[in-house]
Amino acid sequence: MKSPTGQTKNSQLFSIFDPMEKPFYKGLKIGVLGGGQLGRMLLQKSYSYNVEMAFIDPDTHAPCREISNWFYRGDLNNFKLVHDFGKKCDVVTIEIENVCVEALEQLEKEGIKVFPQPRAIKVVQDKGLQKLFYKNNGFPTSDFYLIEGKQDLELFKNQLPLVQKLRKGGYDGKGVQVLRSAADIENAFDGPCILEQLVPIHKEISVIACRGQNGDVKAYPPVEMEFNAEANLVEFLFSPAKISKTLEIQAMELAKKIIVQLDMVGILAVEMFITKEGELLVNEIAPRPHNSGHQTIEGNETSQYDQLLRCLMGMPLGNTDITIPSVMVNLLGEKDYVGAVKYQGIEQAMATDGVNVHIYGKTETKPFRKMGHVTVVDKSLEKAIVKAKIIKDTLKVIA
Ligand code: ADP
Description:
The chain is an alpha+beta fold. The protein has helices at residues 37-46, 79-87, 101-109, 118-125, 127-136, 245-262, 296-299, 304-313, 346-350, 381-394, and strands spanning 14-15, 28-33, 51-57, 70-73, 91-94, 113-114, 144-147, 162-166, 176-179, 193-197, 201-211, 217-219, 223-228, 233-239, 266-275, 280-286, 326-332, 339-340, 342-344, 355-359, 364-365, 370-377, 396-398. The two termini are 35 Å apart.
């Protein structure tokens, strides 16, 4: 039960570790809201710099738990816990958007640096505000309507098909559905939603933009995403995207304009559609490390994790160029398996040149859970694609 300030009764902030045993001894103290795989890869890179990282996550089995010196268990939407956690840090960042923004605003007032800034997180948390932000600033996006609930759908019966998206709380395709005919209205989401025009998609691409504390802005070359139709999750990611140079430049410029307009420090994944007519439309943004940037670890001069750390430390941005083509494959839990995880075929994968395996350390698998990823690098993108498809068929996450 939540009080008006968003505090959960009986909750408390406690560290898994005894502070006397492992004190904050290094330079900058970076606090991360969320302790999942994105935080874990950020932590791995942080060992290159003289910084200390602390994480807060509701799950005591979160991927950062085992490998971090400082891990707190707590509800990320609890004002007091997020505030108490942030007070222990010099800089606070996020690896998930669904957090208590009010606590971050309070921390900012008290002089703690919060990157991305709470005002940007607020826009991103609500898909309705995101769409209004694109529209009001002239960024191309599909046409849309905002509705309060299912009862409003009657008015749109004659305009179907439309894509219905819950304004808040959706992720990885959950909270998104296509309403094709009046019969679908019965199973529509109820609550504040956006209704979007169904875009005839040619390709889905993503560009990660970054902005340092000194205002410098860069963008990574676009990557192309191929989705698993059943799970609505990215299955393959190709870097670079197989698109024209003109579209590539256009997409990078657009992503840079968006991060500047948001006036945020940090990294911002900008997911876009290329329509069948070759038009670029912004779909959604995420102001944190993103699934579409995993391949930057092996495939680019500076990884997205390194880039975010540079932003948090107030250091110069790194070069975003691609050093070698790559294909990223998400390792998703197989459909019929639940329980203690096993990775079938991992030896064969690791025996292949150019294959880089990342296991997130989650002990339990379930259907379509993101358990790890593989990045295949090769001087030829086509060869990397062939290897990645073999990995997809042979490396299985089972129980
Ligand atoms: P999530 O935030 O859950 O990832 P998205 O808004 O990215 O949700 O939508 C998930 C997927 O649904 C997209 O990657 C795309 O394939 C499809 N989709 C979303 N919006 C549209 C649209 N307006 N037209 C066509 N397909 C869409």
